[in-house]
Amino acid sequence: MTRGHDRILIHGYVTGIHGDPVALATVEMCDLRGIKMAISITDRTGSFAISTQAGPGEYILLAVKQLQISDERISLDQSDVEVKIALPAGSTMVAAEGQQDYAVSVQQLRIPEKVRMHLKLASQRFAQLNIPAAQQEVERALQLDHSCAAAYSMRAFLNIASRNLSGAIDDAKRAALLDHYDASAYLAQATAYNSSKQFQDAEEASSQALLLRPDFWQGQLELAKAWLGQGRFVLAWRELDELKKDFPDVHLVRANVLVGLTRKREAAEEFSRFLREAPNDPRNRQVQSIIANLVGSRDSDRLSQLSSR
Fold it and tell me: In angstroms, how far is CA 178 from the centroid of its own chain?
């Protein structure tokens, strides 16, 4: 058999958590560098088929339906490959299918004006990187309303900034208990879990945030970080590819994912974009060292010059 001329059939099923077929799911075939090679759509029985001339080796299949996605690693070592891909448990939850407007929770509408004022001041102090002043405003808000979910979410982010990760997780969990529809609470959980290297928990929390707010780009970023931490680079890259956001930390995560995909030149370019957009970031020296290791000192100098323009 000459693999360069023979086609290989990859076929199988996409199912939900209880084994029920998932129709109209997209199945993408990618190589280990995250390059998309083929695509198929499941029929009403959940079945799909991809015919390819790809050579023998390892590949990744991605199954996508609305907000749910799953990956499966396959090996092409025979002419007929059968695969069953199960979407995660969250796929059975009520998603925002067809909805363009996302309701504000009743809890948020009930926040007293004085509490809202302190939270606004806390947000302003946080943006100025004045963490102690921001924490003071949050405590004032909680003194007025000890069951304010938004205040606990804000305190969770402040705890993350102060590297009090266990406190951040506790506050974010409390916020979610007080307001099940507070996407920020789940985002805070995801951020704290990622910072604690609890990547599976981060994946679940960020997925819940996106279920509540599919347009939440910060949730997409934390989900990509969670997959990066799990070594699921193709999944992380797809999420970042969907995220059309020009922001320093987005470039940093993209760069790290590209390193995992062994796309060194592209990774160096993303690291350089980070340097250009965050010239005073304390991580810059480390990033410059990484660029030099990726592309060599001469090319590193050229990229550094470009990043300073």
Answer: 25
CA dist list (Å): 220 to 6, 184, 186? 39, 13, 12
Cβ atoms 191, 157 nearer than 8 A: yes
Largest CA distance in the chain: 75
Q: What's this model's pTM, rounded to 2 decimal places?
A: 0.86
- Count CB neighbours of 75 within 10 A: 10
Q: Which amino acid is at 165?
A: L
CB 271 within 8 A of CB 299: no
pLDDT in tens, 235-282: 999 999 988 889 999 999 999 999 999 999 999 999 999 999 999 999
In CATH, what number does 107-237 get? Answer: 1.25.40.10
Alpha helices, DSSP H, located in the chain: 106-109, 113-127, 131-144, 149-161, 165-178, 183-195, 199-212, 217-229, 233-242, 248-260, 264-277, 284-295, 297-307
Give the residue extent of every domain in the chain.
8-92, 107-237, 246-309
- Given a contact cutoff of 8 angstroms between Cβ atoms, the answer to whether 32 and 60 are in contact is yes
Taking domain 8-92, whether its CATH number is 2.60.40.1120 is answered by yes
Joined together, the tokens standing for residue 212 give 């509540």
- Please tell me the distance from the alpha carbon of residue 105 to that of residue 183, in angstroms, as a whole number: 10
Residues of the chain with pLDDT under 70: 1-5, 90-109, 297-309
Distance from C-alpha of 218 to C-alpha of 216, rounded to nearest angstrom: 5
Cβ burial of 32 (10 Å; 0-12, 13-18, 19+) is middle
